[in-house]
Design a protein that fits this description.
It contains eight helices and six strands, in the order ααββααβαβαββαα. By secondary structure, the chain is an alpha/beta fold. The protein has a single domain, classed as Uracil-DNA glycosylase-like domain (Uracil-DNA Glycosylase, subunit E), CATH 3.40.470.10. The longest helix has 17 residues, at about 140-155.
Amino acid sequence: MPAVRCQPVPRSDRLDALTRDITHCRACPRLVDWRERVAREKRAAFRGEVYWGRPVPGFGDPAARLLLVGLAPAAHGGNRTGRVFTGDRSGDWLFASLHRTGYANQPISLRADDGLRLHDAYVAAAVRCAPPANRPTPEERDRCLPYLGRELALLDQVRVIVALGGFAYEALWRTLGLAGVGLPAPRPRFGHGVEVATPRATIVCCYHPSQQNTFTGRLTEDMLDAIFRRARELSR
């Protein structure tokens, strides 16, 4: 009898399976309590909406060469809409820049079903649940690292990883180390535009597009666009 060959599971199906695992996670009691409380109490402006109130998976192009890693979903952004950076001010800046640089089909993302499509880019977060005061603990960060590790393994075309903020940079560094990627020592200090070449991908550091940075001019549209234009160059 001829040998039966097992067909490989398509990457998109494996990402769907990872999404299911992420959205059912209850590993961090403090984060579970907070995300669900916010979903019940809601912000007045969104009183009539049904909040997602669960961990938020990554999304984008399964064949992406660019991966973006943020901090965590916003309490009334991703925790409300169910998609990272969707429905908050940080996302307004991020998706507008991705559109200007050719990675997104539209500049605005308000809902998970609004037609946004990413081309050659995938967006994820270091921590998948909205944290109180937007500050996950180191222990909560470390519990979430395996999800980022699994994403990196599945997104095997990724050549550039943009770390949006120092927290994401730290989480990414730990994730790569756990995966056995050879990393330079000492670790380069985070700074906007800093590039770190690794055997897995080139890390590009970027200030997080939070209002704290965009309102003060620490991060401008030109600075953000330049990061993604550079990512395009590095991923070719």
